[in-house]
């Protein structure tokens, strides 16, 4: 297995490809079935947001080590319109597209670490980590 | 890709066996409503035993299917939601409170029988 991978998101089916790769990596690292589902779901949310709001972007996957811990780090990057108020989009139910507004707050709960950076007109980067228990 | 819809007496049965992408989900929503209308079915069981991921989009489509079918007079029961999927739904903040569910297809059919009395 490659410790580092990357999936470009530019068509709808890439959302499926991205979450399938994430699940495979999570499984090989040894994540439980539930955590595999959490990781795949988080990737699905991030990839769909890229596809919906930024048109295209990419998701990178990296196996990381911290002391004796192993984790899977996901970075979702796009050069889309950006997000003006991160704290607003992190609220449950906030959506500009008629969705459930469950995606980003969901990713934060599904994963262990979550950081979002965004600049209007420049794009959005979301970094999130799940640690093996 | 299209999800097959089977007819059994006055029920429709769907067992989702493929990875659901957004387009497939939307197509399924349309197909099911058409089929309910054409067959005048009173109950629908959607079996999710083979579905290993439900994200916010698919959850919304499934929730909408239940509401729309209800408007048309057909009762929908979702069955076989995997434990891991149930847990991720909670993390997403989606409780599916007003969506009828059952453990498996058989229980789902029983539930319909009870509620519809047919
Ligand atoms: N990559 C992005 N670029 C620009 N805006 C974004 C991006 N990701 C999210 N947003 C904005 O943040 C809002 C909230 O996103 P979130 O994923 O939480 O909910 P949603 O996509 O609207 O609905 P759901 O994910 O439940 O289907 C979006 O409606 C959108 O306005
Ligand atoms: Mg979203």
TL;DR?
With 133 residues, chain A is α+β, with helices and mostly antiparallel strands. In chain A, 39% of the residues lie in helices and 32% in strands.
Notes on the structure:
The complex is a heterodimer of chains A (133) and B (118). Chain A is of the alpha+beta class. Chain A has helices at residues 12-29, 33-54, 86-89, 103-110, and strands at residues 4-9, 57-66, 69-78, 113-119, 123-131. Chain A has a single domain, classed as Heat Shock Protein 90 (2-Layer Sandwich). In chain A, strands 1-2-3-5-4 form a 5-stranded antiparallel β-sheet, with helices on one face. Chain B has 118 residues and is α/β, with parallel strands linked by helices. Chain B has one domain: STAS domain (Transcription Regulator spoIIAA), CATH 3.30.750.24. Helices cover 47% and strands 17% of the residues of chain B. In chain B, strands 1-2-3-4-5 form a 5-stranded mixed β-sheet, with helices on both faces. The longest helix of chain B has 18 residues, at 22-39. The relative contact order of chain B is 0.18. The mean pLDDT of chain B is 94. Classes of the chains: A alpha+beta (133), B alpha/beta (118). The complex binds adenosine-5'-triphosphate (ATP) and magnesium ion. Magnesium ion is lined by residues 45, 48-49, 99, 103 of chain A. Chain B: Residues 1-112 form the STAS domain. Chain B: It comes from Oceanobacillus indicireducens.
Run of helices and strands of chain A: EHHEEHHEE
DSSP helical segment count of chain B: 4
Mean pLDDT of chain A: 96
CATH third-level topology of chain A:
Heat Shock Protein 90
| CATH level-two architecture of chain B | 2-Layer Sandwich
Q: Please, what is the CATH homologous superfamily of chain B? A: STAS domain
Number of helices of chain A: 4
**Might you state the CATH topology name of chain B?**
Transcription Regulator spoIIAA
What is the domain tally of chain A?
A: 1
Low-confidence stretches of chain A: none
């Amino acid at each position: 297995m490659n410790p580092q991978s990357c999936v470009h998101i530019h068509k709808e089916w890439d959302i499926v490809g991205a979450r399938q790769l994430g699940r495979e990596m999570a499984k090989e690292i040894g994540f439980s079935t539930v955590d595999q589902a959490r990781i795949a779901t988080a990737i699905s949310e991030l990839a769909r947001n890229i596809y919906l709001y930024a048109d295209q972007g990419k998701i990178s996957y990296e196996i990381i080590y911290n002391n004796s811990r192993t984790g899977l780090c996901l970075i979702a990057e796009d050069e889309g319109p950006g997000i003006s108020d991160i704290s607003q989009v992190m609220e449950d139910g906030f959506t500009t597209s008629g969705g459930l507004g469950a995606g980003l707050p969901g990713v934060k709960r599904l994963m262990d670490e979550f950081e979002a950076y965004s600049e209007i007109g420049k794009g959005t980067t979301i970094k999130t980590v799940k640690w093996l228990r | 890709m299209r999800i097959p819809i089977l007819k059994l007496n006055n029920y429709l049965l769907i067992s989702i066996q493929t990875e659901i992408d957004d387009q497939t989900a939307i197509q399924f929503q349309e197909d099911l409503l058409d089929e309910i209308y054409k067959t005048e079915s009173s109950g629908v069981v959607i079996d999710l035993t083979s579905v290993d991921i439900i994200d916010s989009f698919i959850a919304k489509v499934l929730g909408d299917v239940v509401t729309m079918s209800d408007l048309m007079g057909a009762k929908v029961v979702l069955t076989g939601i995997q434990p891991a999927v149930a847990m991720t739904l909670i993390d997403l903040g989606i409780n599916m409170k007003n969506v009828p569910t059952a453990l498996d297809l058989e229980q789902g059919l029983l539930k319909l029988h009870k509620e519809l009395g047919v």
